[in-house]
Specification:
about 290 residues; alpha/beta; two-stranded parallel ribbon; 12 helices; about 40% helix; globular; Papain-like_cys_pep_sf; Transglutaminase-like
């Protein structure tokens, strides 16, 4: 039942009129990652690809929420179909969440159970657990979820000296947000080691934990979506022991990828799911985030 749930396309991963083309793509996971990499360029790696983009354009493209809109934007940047080779300047400016989202959209369109996960990677910045997203899919033959980092193209592999298969990321190299929370709560790692740029600590992990719960519910948020419940801001402190206890419980849900409890948390836990009078259109943008924290 769990795999059937993740085979179904979500509102955020529905490619709409790109479905037919996606269904013609090969089933090989490495080739599917290549398809994604040909359409996206990471916002923080533009210089490595000799791409220059004005901040306003960069922020606008990074703010693209739905797979269909990312694919439409990619289609508008080249006269060639989206499955044909293109130069980096014809790619959509994105972040790790988007690489994961598009791979997830492709896999679900092809009938493969897949889901995005929010957490932390050990391989992006030395000695740090950096804010990151990956996609994982169910391998029927091996009866396991396989973690895939679709962002890691040949440029990333070389620059980061990656020593593992990006199409089968070891569990020790990418931690679900719940794993990160438990490591810090059990004093096995410093919260200051978890984050990105100058932002770190338990408030940062808290945000990723909430976003990972939404991913388990097939609500693939933007990496900076905040503004509701116990996540009013991007860096929202833990207010009291009750909230800490709740986050401890949610960390176990993330760690164990417990789909049923993730659904229950969004449906019944006050402060986790969206309020009835709130929508994602009210969440701050990446431009707002930079203005507040840069």
């Amino acid at each position: 039942m769990e795999t059937q749930y993740y085979q179904q396309i979500s509102e955020y991963t529905d490619p709409i009129h790109h479905r037919s083309l996606i269904q013609t793509l090969p089933n090989d996971i490495e080739q599917l990652c290549g398809f994604v990499q040909n359409l996206l360029v990471h916002a923080y790696w533009l210089g490595k690809y000799d791409v220059e983009v004005e901040d306003s354009v960069k922020h606008s493209e990074m703010q693209t929420r739905y797979a269909k809109d990312i694919l439409n934007l990619a289609a508008s940047k080249s006269a060639l179909p989206i499955n044909k080779k293109r130069i980096p300047s014809e790619r959509v400016v994105s972040i790790c969440r988007d690489f994961s989202l598009i791979l997830c959209a492709v896999l679900r369109t092809k009938g493969v159970a897949a889901r995005t996960r929010c957490g932390f990677a050990t391989y992006l910045t030395p000695e740090l657990f950096e804010d990151h997203w990956i996609c994982e899919y169910w391998d029927q033959g091996q009866s396991r979820w396989i973690r895939v980092d679709a962002q890691l193209d040949s440029t990333h592999l070389q620059e980061l000296n990656i020593d593992f298969n990006p199409c089968d990321v070891p569990e020790s190299r990418f931690l679900y947000a719940g794993d990160a929370w438990q490591l810090c709560r059990n004093e096995k790692a410093s919260p200051a080691k978890f984050g990105i740029l100058s932002l770190n600590g338990l408030p940062f992990i808290k945000g990723n934990l909430i976003r990972d719960l939404f991913s388990l519910n097939k609500i693939e948020l933007l990496a900076w979506d905040t503004g509701w419940g116990i996540l009013p801001h991007y860096m929202s402190p833990i207010l009291n022991t009750d909230e800490m206890d709740l986050l401890d419980q949610l960390a176990m849900v993330s760690k164990e990828s417990d789909v049923l409890k993730a659904k229950q948390a969004l449906a019944s836990q006050s402060g986790i799911g969206f309020p009835v009078d709130w929508s994602l259109t009210m969440a701050p943008s990446i431009t707002d985030l930079y203005a507040q924290y840069s």
